């Protein structure tokens, strides 16, 4: 059997070729928090090791990757390449129907209102996002929060402001939720509240408002992820009947 030749074809992609056929590729993406995530897609199993070796030789560590916990073969390949378990993230499916979530009678805390999409002030939204990130980094670390693997210009961690709903109290932005609409099911990518406004029902009211809006728009369910160490997020999701459907593992190579 011919041995694949691996080469780096761009700054973010490696390609494995046998003769004139591409038999696999590897990619690297950088998250807003600076972590680099690698992925490998191959058509021949033996090509995985050659791509992993090439990527590890070209990039500084640490490097991260994500695998479904049920994908034992893929996890084993990454572990053979020297990656080890960093954290686990649970996946949930949740109904948007307030009668099923128990949020139909929930009223926002006194003085709290909500802004969506085009009504959100981008400058205040960026300031809120930065403040929340600083608070998270000072405690559990932002790496425990779900994050899309998308490049961002330096200093900009908010992607499309239209995906955000913001909780406002007395003119101040105190909480946010980010929802990415997809066919038939929306992704709740992030829900967070400023530290000095937690345990006042803001997060629960923000989620109730967001799910209610999705329900009225005809979206029956949403999905979300939460780090297994994020007790507050797990408690919130499970308190409204969210069903755990699987888990992803983040592996790291130091």
TrEMBL record:
InterPro entries: Acyl_CoA_acyltransferase, Bact_Acetyltransf, GNAT_dom
Domain N-acetyltransferase: 115-254
CDD domains per UniProt: NAT_SF
Alphabetical keyword list: Acyltransferase, Transferase
Protein's UniProt keywords contain Acyltransferase: yes
Protein name: GNAT family N-acetyltransferase
Species of provenance: Streptomyces bambusae
